Amino acid sequence: MRTEVGIIGAGPAGLFLAHLLHRTGISSVILESRSREDVEGTVRAGVLEHWVTELIKELGLGERMLREGHFHDGITLQWNRHRHHVDIEGLTGGKRVTVYPQHEVLKDLVAGLLARGGEIIFGARATAIHGAETETPSIEFCRDAANTPEMLHCDYIAATDGFHGPGRQAIPAAKRVEYQKIYPFGWLGILTKAPLSWHELIYANQRDGFALLSTRSPDVQRMYIQCDPAGSISAWSDARIWDELHARLDTGDGWSLTEGPIVQKGIIPLRSFVCETMRHGRLFLAGDAAHIVPPTGAKGLNLAVADVRVLARLLDAVHKTGDQSILDRYSATCLRRIWKAERFSWYMTTMLHKNDEESDFERRIHIADLDLIRTSEASARSLAENYVGLPFDKGDE
Ligand code: FAD
Ligand code: DHB
């Protein structure tokens, strides 16, 4: 089997890349180890930056998002049982974020790609990457139903295979530098069949720990609470989860969170991670394969799309000019945006969570940071600009 760009993984990075390449006439094949049902059913991120929403529309895939997504002009920050609305739209000259779940985005991307003649092989696990330093790289893979290895020959390989995929390991260890921070807390996420409790997302810093109120649809809500990442989900009865959510989101002014049956729950650890370099010969890492952010800034999915936006543009330029040296810009261009998203995600995480490893001095600093957003327009604007998605650097266009 042969294609121009072999893509490992049908997550946001792989699927957006295939669409962007298709638009410029470059062929690709996606190998995805999971089934289509599994890919389209896994609940993850929820917030799309302004430019990602625009890109989805530009790709002609926005119909359902425009119908079913929630467009938010701001977020609420809460501390000391006080709520403060951050006017994202007003502070960014009219930009809003969209709450439209990752798996719904993936459904639209998969259906759109297949309708345009794109190729996604579900149930195909990439097992090895060959010849990344040559002009004829290939991906060895195995289909679920068979034990016989097959080869996908290509001009370039995009490893959009998430944090645990084989892509990053295919860059020799001596050529990689990895930066990592593990946080001493995780998030317990739930889906509940309940009506909206508040008109926008609430990020709450409470003495007992962080809580986030988000949404999925008028009848299904998404909520998170800070928890022990090593704890077992079985220790979290529904009653305990509601008790914690009430305690952390309460404002003492009569407002009350509306409960409903919990239909899904799970715990995720929080980490920051960056791999430099993101390129080895004709192998390119993008998305979670190259970096992880703690979810507090809602950046993971958006950053994955930003990487492949760069990659698709550079591959298009190489296609048109034949000049391979254009690809030398890939890593540095992506990393400039990645480190800013890492900074913002770390800032939001440290400001909003309870960290037993910190002193009372640091806790006071976090409250001062929150109060600065309330009292300083410059501080609020900086948060809003990062949250809605930083403008692209002129050199990165
Ligand atoms: P992924 O979405 O991980 O996609 C990688 C794909 O590659 C997967 O489909 C995988 O099956 C496939 N793959 C892996 N190995 C192979 C192989 N060998 N062969 C073929 N295919 C392979 N971000 C937020 O902003 N907010 C959140 O609330 C949030 N919650 C999250 C919850 C969880 C449990 C996780 C894991 C992540 C969460 N994230 C969240 C992060 C966000 O979802 C990711 O940043 C985003 O999915 C990254 O997209 P990606 O395409 O780079 O990787
Ligand atoms: C959601 C997840 C996030 O990480 C975030 O910062 C905001 C919303 C969500 O899943 O809805």
Q: Your description of this structure?
A:
By secondary structure, the chain is an alpha+beta fold. The chain contains eleven helices and 20 strands. It has helices spanning 12-23, 36-41, 50-58, 63-68, 88-91, 102-115, 238-249, 300-321, 330-352, 360-375, 377-388; strands spanning 5-8, 28-32, 47-48, 70-72, 75-79, 82-86, 97-99, 119-122, 124-130, 138-143, 150-153, 156-159, 177-193, 202-206, 209-215, 220-227, 262-276, 279-280, 283-285, 291-292. The strands form four sheets. An eight-stranded mixed beta sheet has the order 6-5-14-15-16-13-17-20. A six-stranded mixed beta sheet has the order 8-2-1-12-19-18, covered by helices on one side. The protein has a three-stranded antiparallel beta sheet with strand order 3-7-4. It is globular. The protein starts with a strand and ends in a 9-residue tail after the last helix. The mean pLDDT is 97. The chain binds flavin-adenine dinucleotide and 3,4-dihydroxybenzoic acid. Flavin-adenine dinucleotide is lined by residues 8-14, 31-34, 39, 44-46, 102, 125-126, 160-162, 165-166, 268, 287-288, 295, 298-301, 304.
The overall strand count is: 20
Q: Specify the oligomeric state.
A: single chain
Based on CA atoms alone, the radius of gyration comes out at 21 Å
Mean pLDDT: 97
